Q: What sequence folds into this?
């Protein structure tokens, strides 16, 4: 199956700093990637849809100036948590749809996730 | 987007067959049904996908009745390592947005 890789897998930072998380599709092109946030014992919450070459589409309630998303190439999307605070501590997961491999049935491939801890 | 409803949790014992049912009453004609498995601190992993009737792969079977308003994920002979959260998602090929429901926490006991 298609492989999506996230980096870093975990990061600890001080309050007020910015953190960048990368999401790469290793063996396929992804015109669309998705970013999720997951708190303990909860489901994945869609934050935004990242479109290659255009602005990301954010879900209601997600601050686009705080969670900066860049999708500059067909294999890389980045999420930058700006001026991070302890309440931003969470598990961030990206996913991508496979495009160009026959019929697109909506299957998503997920990264391993990135755990952010803000002190 | 079709909303899905699943049981919050289920318990089972090793070696048993586990069936998890998902309701999706407002599923659209173009929607596929996809199930994912998630272990703690990992991203979800694709299990199986179907449109109608029955689909089987090396790890699971998916049963979809004619009206497609529900689906059942069947895990044969579960092991302790199948303890995870299972998500049922419904979406069409053109809809790029994927919304996760609460999922079903499966506990497999020895």
A:
């Amino acid at each position: 199956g298609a492989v999506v890789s996230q980096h870093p897998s975990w990061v600890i930072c001080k309050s007020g700093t910015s953190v960048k998380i990368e999401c790469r599709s290793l063996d396929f092109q992804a015109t669309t990637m998705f970013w999720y946030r997951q708190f303990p014992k909860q489901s994945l919450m869609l934050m935004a849809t990242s479109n290659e070459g255009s602005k990301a589409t954010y879900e209601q309630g997600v601050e686009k100036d705080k969670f900066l998303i860049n999708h500059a190439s067909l294999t890389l999307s980045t999420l930058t948590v700006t001026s991070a605070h302890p309440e931003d501590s969470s598990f961030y997961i990206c996913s991508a749809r496979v495009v160009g491999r026959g019929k697109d049935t909506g299957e998503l491939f997920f990264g391993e996730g990135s755990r952010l801890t803000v002190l | 987007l079709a909303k899905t409803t699943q049981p919050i949790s289920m318990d089972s014992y090793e070696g048993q067959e586990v069936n998890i049912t998902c309701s999706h009453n407002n599923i659209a004609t173009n929607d596929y049904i996809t199930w994912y498995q998630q272990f703690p601190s990992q991203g979800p992993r694709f299990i199986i996908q179907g449109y109608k009737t029955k689909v089987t792969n090396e790890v699971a079977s998916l049963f979809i009745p004619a009206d497609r308003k529900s689906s059942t994920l069947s895990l044969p002979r579960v092991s302790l390592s199948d303890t995870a959260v299972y998500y049922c998602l419904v979406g069409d090929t053109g809809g790029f947005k994927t919304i996760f429901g609460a999922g079903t926490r499966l506990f497999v006991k020895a």
